[in-house]
Amino acid sequence: MRIGLLTGGGDCPGLNAAIRGVVKHALGEYGHSVIGFRNGWKGVAQGDVQPLGRSDIRNVLPVGGTLLGTARFHPHSEDGGMDAVLTTLEAERIDALVCIGGDGTVHAASKVAEAGVPMIAIPKTIDNDVEGTDLSIGFHTAVNIATDAIDRLHTTAESHNRVMVVEVMGRHAGWIAVNAGIAGGAEVVLAPERPFDIDKVVRFLRHRHRAHASFSIVVVAEGAVPAEGSAMDFTQRLGRFGEIVAGSVGEAVAAEIAERTGFDTRLTVLGHVQRGGTPTPTDRILGSRFGVAAVDAAASGRTSVMTAVRGDEVHLVPFDEVAGKVKHVPEELLRVADTLA
Amino acid sequence: MRIGLLTGGGDCPGLNAAIRGVVKHALGEYGHSVIGFRNGWKGVAQGDVQPLGRSDIRNVLPVGGTLLGTARFHPHSEDGGMDAVLTTLEAERIDALVCIGGDGTVHAASKVAEAGVPMIAIPKTIDNDVEGTDLSIGFHTAVNIATDAIDRLHTTAESHNRVMVVEVMGRHAGWIAVNAGIAGGAEVVLAPERPFDIDKVVRFLRHRHRAHASFSIVVVAEGAVPAEGSAMDFTQRLGRFGEIVAGSVGEAVAAEIAERTGFDTRLTVLGHVQRGGTPTPTDRILGSRFGVAAVDAAASGRTSVMTAVRGDEVHLVPFDEVAGKVKHVPEELLRVADTLA
Amino acid sequence: MRIGLLTGGGDCPGLNAAIRGVVKHALGEYGHSVIGFRNGWKGVAQGDVQPLGRSDIRNVLPVGGTLLGTARFHPHSEDGGMDAVLTTLEAERIDALVCIGGDGTVHAASKVAEAGVPMIAIPKTIDNDVEGTDLSIGFHTAVNIATDAIDRLHTTAESHNRVMVVEVMGRHAGWIAVNAGIAGGAEVVLAPERPFDIDKVVRFLRHRHRAHASFSIVVVAEGAVPAEGSAMDFTQRLGRFGEIVAGSVGEAVAAEIAERTGFDTRLTVLGHVQRGGTPTPTDRILGSRFGVAAVDAAASGRTSVMTAVRGDEVHLVPFDEVAGKVKHVPEELLRVADTLA
Amino acid sequence: MRIGLLTGGGDCPGLNAAIRGVVKHALGEYGHSVIGFRNGWKGVAQGDVQPLGRSDIRNVLPVGGTLLGTARFHPHSEDGGMDAVLTTLEAERIDALVCIGGDGTVHAASKVAEAGVPMIAIPKTIDNDVEGTDLSIGFHTAVNIATDAIDRLHTTAESHNRVMVVEVMGRHAGWIAVNAGIAGGAEVVLAPERPFDIDKVVRFLRHRHRAHASFSIVVVAEGAVPAEGSAMDFTQRLGRFGEIVAGSVGEAVAAEIAERTGFDTRLTVLGHVQRGGTPTPTDRILGSRFGVAAVDAAASGRTSVMTAVRGDEVHLVPFDEVAGKVKHVPEELLRVADTLA
């Protein structure tokens, strides 16, 4: 059997563990071959192949990123993209294609599956918003990095009596913000799940600093949005910046707090450090388990499925149960973030 | 309402997060009081109380250990222990008692509950073998520490062409060994779940080193046992050491490998470093959620229960579903450890 | 003897180690008392005192920030500031005053010393630009944090074929940029010591990406400046942003590279995380040694001196040898950064 | 010019940074070739060569160990060893040989230099006892690892009221013990520089626990020795263990303390984790600078020298100033360890 393999979308720590899992298990347990494609779906379209053997995956477990490279490219939305993909897969005699990616990649996978290709997806996204699985690859490491940053900001906030605003990733869901906020002991956590009222945030901080505290940590997900009816000024601040610098929401929040409270307020935008570097053990284990499960699925003919973890167990979930859905932070966790503020 | 709180059994990272969660939520959400007892059940028996307010839990989130202290003491097996406990709880007018601990503490809790005390338990054990919950406090940090050690041993093993044996904690279950083994890319993982055959381990290593490798990592849980019928010499080696030094199983395994293969073989016994230091974000979040859930349970009169996490959700599990049971590593995870070796 | 103690200027990791060193050594070796002042020179001026005993310094060694608090306040430039300081010192019967701080604090110390107060300074600055000492407290931790960030950006840059620009602290000297740049394997390091030519940077990156590479890391010190005669556009970009967001130089550099090369370019501004969190062992040891040396100096009447480390040894350096000077990165180190690019 | 390169003796983090420094600088600055020898002097004797180009050193900066492998082999003490070395060097037309190693390697280098080979040495040893340089490669990372372990033991010692004995590396000098002891806030540090009196240690701990403390950390260098006239029992305990398990001194110290004080006492032997894993930025920078300096020395014909760092500067030191000498911990640092206990 010839198993194709690609990584698509934004990179994150743990991808190499999944690649290693696929290769070791396919070769060792089944004697199958693994054909990698470079730079995501683009490499499939262009026939950019890299056969993967044991020596290619030596020492990659603790290394972030993806040894296959990645790119944002969707075959079904490019002219001739789908044909090019199918041509390559036939030319390379691929019996099943494993793609490691987020929303977009899984969506592309379901389109390619509709064209008759046996597909298995492995979920990765530091935002952790893929439906059907407790965890996606990369999320856990991102929470660790964000918590480490909050820990560091904590001591300097306290020494200087400052409000520290820290913007973390999370476009459609606030998993990183809420988890790192709880772990780092943040006073305020703004997540996409709950449009925020800047007036309320300001009132809370004023009250806190009047009562007993001299500093505060405010964690803002990049996808946090002001509630309707919030102060106009604030809404206008948003979107002032271009593509190269992240931080527009965080910057607006920090500016409002500074202006309205008079507190010494500073912004930190964590940005790309959240998606790089050595994966945590959890992400390495998750990638390894998903890689093994994907090969087992391919070998047993279970396709159009995504690997998933629920509690202690690994499952296979049909594409149509997960495609196009966003997994949001549960109410209980949001409440813990609030109550421990 | 007056909520009592204690930490029992061996300490681990994340206990302070749970204490903080109990205190912040009890005071902030309900206006309840929290009365801590020092050094576990011993402090209850001796009336060693420490009322807990907001200032006691400042900055404890990233700190390992337990600010309440702990001790191994079981009221039901001490002469007059149970009476002393009940006397103190009455004197302190405790309406519900939250105990954070492992097997032993939960067992003691069920005994005290039988005597009519409203009890809620929060599970902690770096061994992760408490039934009914995916995770217990402390386990996640221990896996991180063990993986970090394996990463370090990896580079030195490779540079020197050595077999590195590393003994990790796990008396009745191999959660740390299996997880750290997968995360660290170990070649052999010996866990209590599967009695091992030292002959087979030696054959595997000889074959591996003959084929292509020049080094190997062998992870041994402290509770790993040789299969019946294993070589006598080996069994005799076990138990040679006293109480102060850990390492008997690992030492026996390392000695056998060294003697029979002639490979340059070294042993590292991780020991107590696995239960100390800054908790990972996961353990801080787990402790925080459990602390909040325990207070909610106390407030709503749900007692004789243990907090538990399953997948994304926090649950309450009755004592009689968990007491006296050991949660073992699932077959799928053991298989991932084997197949990726 | 009554020793006064304050921390001034920006906070950083390792200050608590120095405070602990002063207190433990003064109390233990000499039986002296230590009187802390809260929030730097401001606290001296306002008589905001906090006597320091053994219990105040328990467990502070691994904690970032300063337990005394800090503020940017210079007694000699405030109306009546100097008188207020002298009044407090007399009222508190301070025999010698130890101040832990950077340039500004040392300058203030020399002014106060001129007014007859026995002063000893301990240098701290993450920028490491204090003359007369190999290391100042806080620098070493900052380099570790910046290197960790570059390591993380490295894997994501490589996976996505990107240019990653990372702005680090360093207003007048490029110690962090050069050290973290070498440690992280950066391709370009821009430091205040050498005004940079953006054309040359762009040419270098184009050549590198044409020749063999698909990604690059560019480290920019916040105090890096374009050489005279650089492209006007570039110079105009500078200073566009206000006080709340750092990143003006880095942003300008990233924008120029993106525009002129067409490479996918991203900016990360590390900001305040560089001055917080657990100090490295090196900063803890440095703080401890400086604290002990400062007390010895006070006890033996050696004043108007700054503690310093040179190679393996701790020295005392007169204020007038260090005041108003900036220590720059040596040529050899700049050359290593270049040659290993 | 053809530069030979080898790594000898025990491995440690930072060796790859030095190899990378040699290769990048030799190729980039001078156009020289670099010929690696595998497994130290053994590879030279056996003609086991590996030419080193840019692709060999990609991404090695954060990786521990040595990509060239290492072995303990001294050409001058093996029969025909010296002839074999000279034959290989001639056959490979090596113009200068750079060896990265500790005492033994530098000693071998001086012997080979006497036979007419242009030699340059780069010092590495986690023990940091090479004379003539403030730092040797690997030491700094080892101190970080040991301090991290002490931090972890600290919280568990405190929670359980225990004495924690931790044995660290350091055969002839106590650099790791003293530095990690200060950084970790240890109560007792036993180093080879000062033979210890176990009676005094026991008295100190008894006094401390009687006065105010409930726990203690005792750091023991593996080369610490009891003072003459110490209790016989103790001396007899030493040397009970074989080669596979480290820990004899630590074990003896822990057993004595347990027996004589009755305190709950535990031993941790850090062992091989101290010499593996990702190097700290300091070790990466040190390796990089030494690699560049060694190539410059070779290019300018300065041979029979060792690279060294003193304060901020890199120097070249003649072999005869360093060979056969042990650099001990200075008195001032020992005193800081004592006074802050």
From TrEMBL, chains A, B, C, D:
Q: Where does substrate bind?
A: 125-127, 162, 169-171, 222, 266, 272-275
Q: Could you say which residues bind ATP here?
A: 10, 72-73, 102-105
State the needed cofactors, names only: Mg(2+)
Active-site residue list: 127 (proton acceptor)
**What range(s) does the Phosphofructokinase domain occupy?**
2-297
Question: What binding partners and quaternary form does the record give?
Answer: Homodimer or homotetramer.
Looking up SUPFAM superfamilies in the UniProt record yields:
Phosphofructokinase (SSF53784)
Its pathway is:
Carbohydrate degradation; glycolysis; D-glyceraldehyde 3-phosphate and glycerone phosphate from D-glucose: step 3/4
Q: Where is this site: Important for substrate specificity?
A: 104
Q: Which domain of life is it from?
A: Bacteria
Q: Does the keyword Metal-binding apply?
A: yes
This protein's UniProt keywords: ATP-binding, Cytoplasm, Glycolysis, Kinase, Magnesium, Metal-binding, Nucleotide-binding, Transferase
Q: Which organism is it from?
A: Luteimicrobium album
- For this entry, the protein name equals ATP-dependent 6-phosphofructokinase
Catalytic activity reads: beta-D-fructose 6-phosphate + ATP = beta-D-fructose 1,6-bisphosphate + ADP + H(+)
Q: Which Gene3D superfamilies match?
A: 3.40.50.450, Phosphofructokinase domain
Q: Which family does it belong to?
A: Belongs to the phosphofructokinase type A (PFKA) family. Mixed-substrate PFK group III subfamily.
Classification via InterPro entries:
ATP_PFK, ATP_PFK_prok-type, Phosphofructokinase_CS, Phosphofructokinase_dom, Phosphofructokinase_III, PKF_sf
* Function noted in UniProt: Catalyzes the phosphorylation of D-fructose 6-phosphate to fructose 1,6-bisphosphate by ATP, the first committing step of glycolysis.
Q: What is its main location?
A: cytoplasm
Where in or outside the cell it occurs: the entry states: Cytoplasm
User: Which EC number(s) are documented for this chain?
Assistant: 2.7.1.11
